[in-house]
Amino acid sequence: MKQIAKYATAVAVTFLITGCIPQPKPNIPTTPQIGDPIHNADYGYPPSNYQQSIRSYFSNRINRSELANYQFSKPQRAYKRNGLAYGGDVTWKGWLVDVSIAVPNKAGRMMPAKPYMVLFTQSVIVEAILGSDHQLVTRVGQ
């Protein structure tokens, strides 16, 4: 009887000890390293006539777009990943242009400018994201 109790205690202690060992974390890189294939990828040519493309894109998406003031940055290479819940793979790579758009209200006073990130692929707008930063969008240094 004592031998069965010792055996049961040993099995219980083994289960308790092995259940407390932390699981290894998945090796998903959060920031690209130099030499990473993302940095060497072909982003295509910078968008041509991007200012006019952005103005026409927002012409039917914002009120009073004909009176809006736009401020553009120069195009820069960037890429976008899926969320980690979806695998974290790169879903888009191309060019990003930061834009601030200020529109007047009905009384004619200019409202504060809203920042947008406009994503281009081969001079075609793929997406416009409200804000100047996004967790899934990474700018690639020139």
Record the SSE blueprint:
Blueprint: H1 2-19, H2 50-58, E1 69-72, E2 76-81, E3 90-102, E4 114-121, E5 124-130, E6 137-139
Antiparallel strand pairs: 1-3, 2-3, 2-6, 3-4, 4-5
Task: Kindly summarize this structure in a few lines.
With 142 residues, the protein is α+β, with helices and mostly antiparallel strands. Helix content is 19%, strand content 29%. Strand 4 and strand 5 (124-130) form a beta hairpin.
Structural account:
The protein has 142 residues and is α+β, with helices and mostly antiparallel strands. The chain has one domain (33-139). It has two helices and six strands. It has helices spanning 2-19, 50-58, and strands at 69-72, 76-81, 90-102, 114-121, 124-130, 137-139. Strands 1, 2, 3, 4, 5 and 6 form a six-stranded antiparallel beta sheet that branches. Strand 2 (76-81) and strand 3 form a beta hairpin. The longest helix is centred in the N-terminal third of the chain and has 18 residues, at 2-19. The mean pLDDT is 82.
Helix-residue proportion: 10-25%
Give the rounded overall mean pLDDT: 82
Number of strands: 6
Order of helices and strands: HHEEEEEE
Termini, distance in Å? 75 Å
What can be said about the biggest beta sheet?
6 strands, antiparallel
How big is the Rg?
A: 26 Å
Instruction: Specify the number of helices.
Output: 2
Low-confidence spans: pLDDT under 50, at least 5 residues? none
Our count of domains comes out at: 1
Structural class designation: alpha+beta
> How much strand?
25-35%
Q: Given the C-alpha coordinates, what overall shape results?
A: elongated
